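P.,

For your records, the input lines for the assembly:
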Amino acid sequence: MKSRSLILFIALSLLAIGLFLSDLAWGSIHISLSEIISVFFGKGAEGINSEILLNFRLPKAITAVLAGASLSVAGLMMQTLFRNPLADPYILGVSSGASLGVALVMMAAAFLPVAFVSSGWALIAAAIIGASIVLVLVVGVSFKVNNAVSLLIVGIMFGTIASSFVSVLQNFSNPDAIKLFVMWTFGSLSAVTWNYMTVLLPVVLVGLGLAFYLQKKLDGLLLGENYARGLGISITKIRFLIVLATGLLAGGITAFTGPIAFVGVAIPHIARGVFRTSLHRILLPACVLLGASLLLVCDIISQIPTYTLPINTISALFGAPIIIWIILKRR
Amino acid sequence: MSILTTQNLSIGYSKKGKTDIIQSDLQLSLRAGELVCLIGPNGSGKSTLLRTLAGLQKPLAGKTKIDGDETAKLSQHEKALLIALVLTERVDIENATVYNIVSLGRHPHSSWWGNMSEEEDAFIHEVIAMVHLEHKAHSFLSELSDGERQRAMIAKALAQDTPIILLDEPTAHLDLPNRVEIMLLLHKLAHKTQKAILLSTHELDLALQAADRIWLISSEHGVECGVPEDLVFNGSFNRAFESRAYYFNAANGNFSMNYPMTKSVWVSGDKTRMYWTLRALARAGCMVEQNAAVHILVTEDGWQMNNEDISTIEELLNKLNDL
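Structure tokens returned:
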């Protein structure tokens, strides 16, 4: 069993590295592998290709890796917390909460200090706060409602409420701000510049670190809350930490890339299917590698046409069939 | 030696300032190396008592103590080292093997990473062998029967290596062979491992046979504790399950239904066939009386009523109806 996981991990790591390099190489201008290597090792860093590679494709590819890993890990934690195979940050309204936060900052930008709005911190803070508020509400309700399906509906309702607020905001905003926001909702991996990366990377790393810190307790949580208590796990504490980690991961990513659907729900299932285990110490890294790979594939596909397709569309095209497959498999 | 004791314990629920006391002033004590069965009608507070003893629920008044320490003052982790639980909620974990589930019981003992040392691994296999699931150790939970699943949960509780195990209706949803096997297993475990095992059940006859001690709980009479046979002799069972529809039959340790008696018959004859004849007669509303007008003689291969030979119970009942 153990050697099988090890082989899979090595294969997946190689796949992710290969996809990462392909993502760097392909695009509207083809950059050969030898050129990529020479740019990275400081030799012949000449003109436009080096510029595209270092300041456009590299941060975009890194963002794809971070987004795929974060959303998958957040999805896995949500599925474990709610013991529901269809839970993910998107379905439970976390992304809608993040959208509301972003919409508030973007459309209220006129009233806020320019330096604050353009620093990157404002967007990420707004998205994380928005996402966390919705999650805290959902978790709060989960103390009262034990039925997972009802809880899911409550999450969707919170998401709808947040979306309605966004609509109301749009109604009162100027067309430029609305256009900016609509572009944000399409999802884009290329919005993250090196400047923003200094914000996004630490947030994601803290979130992932928290998820890995919780791995043993997440295993215990699979038994249900009463059994988990019996094993010495403090439910309120772990719920809070999961909400915090999910808020950082899903909220942070959504702030910079816009909502990216389906990755969060689909990847944990693929990870379980591939590794055939319930242990989070295997599923978490599996989600990181698989999520990163899926979004890299999506990014490569999205730039095949001459103009770039929104990443949200591509990920949904991959994710929706997987959800249907899950439902059919469960009958 | 008592390991778990309660002092003036009141259990129940309190919601929005309203308290609903289910049982009060309980002085109980659970001893190491004993299997105790908690029996009582629905709504008498079996699950509430178990949950309170397990620390999943706060007592309304009084305290529970483990080894002299008040349970409420112990941390969740300290409690997990003292009490292991088997609950009624169904555990369904995709891709989890029996080994995975049982090793979750090591949670309070293992390091952050949760990896198993060789001794831990050997211990888990030993515990799986105790519940006779060796051959299924690496089967997925979804492939197990209900009985095997319950045994896996018991193994998880054993893996937790606590002096106390509490089980909430471990035999519910199981067929008779599995119910008997689980009870025997728990009885053996209590004696072999010197653990204190408390379980709630509806299986009166099984509990009477397997339990070292019974806690009989009812809304009217509180909790009565004792060796099963003592409770039979002092009529506690009849009091706890008071009803007009049935009575506790001390002759066979079971409940018998109270049928409305309209006729009286006198029965005599063959002993082994007598038992079933009496059951059929009771169902038909016939009270058995010495020297009643109607006399049924149970013979070796049939019955005789008013000097008429009868070959089946059905025929006998029809004849009685015609009288």
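Two observations worth noting. The interface with chain B takes residues 1, 85, 213, 215-216, 219-220, 222-224, 226-227, 229-234, 272, 275-279, 281 of chain A (CB under 8 Å). The two ends of chain A are 28 Å apart (CA to CA).

Regards
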